Amino acid sequence: MDHIVALQFPGQGSQHVGMGQDLCDRSPAAAAVFNRADEILGFPLSRLCFDGPAEALGDTRNTQPAVLTTNVAALRVLEERLGQPWRPALVAGHSLGEFSALVAAGALEFEPALRLVHQRGQLMHQAGQQDPGGMAAVIGLDAAQVESVCAHVRASGGGYVGVSCYNSPRQVVVSGDEETLRIGMQALKAEGARRVIRLAVSIAAHSPLMAEAAAAFARLLERIAIRSPEMPFVANVTACPLVDSDQIREALTQQLCRPIRWTESVRWMIHRGATRFVEAGPGDVLTGLLRRIDRGVERLTTAQAIAQEPGS
Fold first, then answer.
1. DSSP secondary structure code for residue 307 in this structure
2. Would you tell me how many other CB atoms lie within 10 Å of the CB of residue 124?
3. Is residue 202 among the annotated active site residues?
């Protein structure tokens, strides 16, 4: 069977100490990506990825360049190992993963992408310091139920809580300021959510609380060269492909303040014929979400894809 391959790139939450080490042990191309990242950033990012500590790796200022670098290293290994039959026909990335997807699509070079996400992490950290907030995963309610609960909490208290990621039909993430998020989590449990899990972040990503960071990031993007993608790049905020560089800049800015429409993005790629999804990056977060979105397509992590026979 000839597969139509979609590459999906993870974002924050996929990081773990040791990530990328196996890729570098396997591939000079992957090692070159990490070495170049160390040179660009001026500090040993590779050592942080390989050896930790976990607390430092989990700081969004480090997490963002670390995940991008690992994603691109995985991409290079897949390119050299598997060859033309595995060339992606479509690409998408979850939140931070969009920058890796743009590298894969030839729209963005690795160096400016790395500098951008490093600055993005700093801006988001600053926003979290100024307006403390957080995020929580909600499992067992559909999106409409979560939206309704969040709207009621906002109307009752005046603070903000709302859906920030539509990850799968029965898993969404909410973001909000500290107090309103706490109230929202209680209300969601009362609504019947199977689990409501506070995430280990101190920022309310993909929410209006990131507006100041988004405005500053938009100014950074104006100075970056972005080309038209060589294949469909499915954007988080539109759940459909973007080809114009100005549209891409706008989407990258908006996704700091607007929800990640991941379920719709995946379904769009399946509708366009994608039959094999490969997660290029550390772990299997997106592979797990795909299983909950559509069990009828092939799902592979980087390690599983590399284990396949070339050309298969």
1. T
2. 25
3. no
Residue of 164, 206, 207, 265 marked catalytic: 206
Say if residue 87 is in the same domain as residue 228: yes
Task: Please name the amino acid found at residue 55.
Answer: E
Q: Which domain holds residue 197?
A: 133-201
In tens, the pLDDT along 47-90 reads 999 999 999 999 999 999 999 999 999 999 998 877 765 789 99
Q: Give the active site residue among 95, 168, 175, 207.
A: 95
Question: In CATH, what number is assigned to the domain containing residue 181?
Answer: 3.30.70.250
What is this structure's pTM? 0.95
Instruction: Let me know whether 167 and 233 are in one domain.
Output: no
Determine the Cα–Cα distance for residues 238 and 37; give it in Å rounded to an integer: 30
Which DSSP string corresponds to 100-166?
HHHHHTTSS-HHHHHHHHHHHHHHHHHHHHHS-EEEEEEESS-HHHHHHHHHHHHHHHSS-EEEEEE
State residue 198 phi and psi, 5-degree precision. -70, 130
Query: Which pair of structure tokens corresponds to residue 21?
Result: 């080490």
- Together in a domain, 38 and 179: no
Find the helix or strand (DSSP H, E) in which 241 lies.
Answer: strand 241-242
Spatial neighbors of 198 by CB under 8 A, at least 6 apart, are 134, 135, 136, 185
Q: How far is CA 36 from the centre of its chain?
A: 22
**3 part of the active site:** no
Question: Residue with structure tokens 């009828």?
Answer: 296
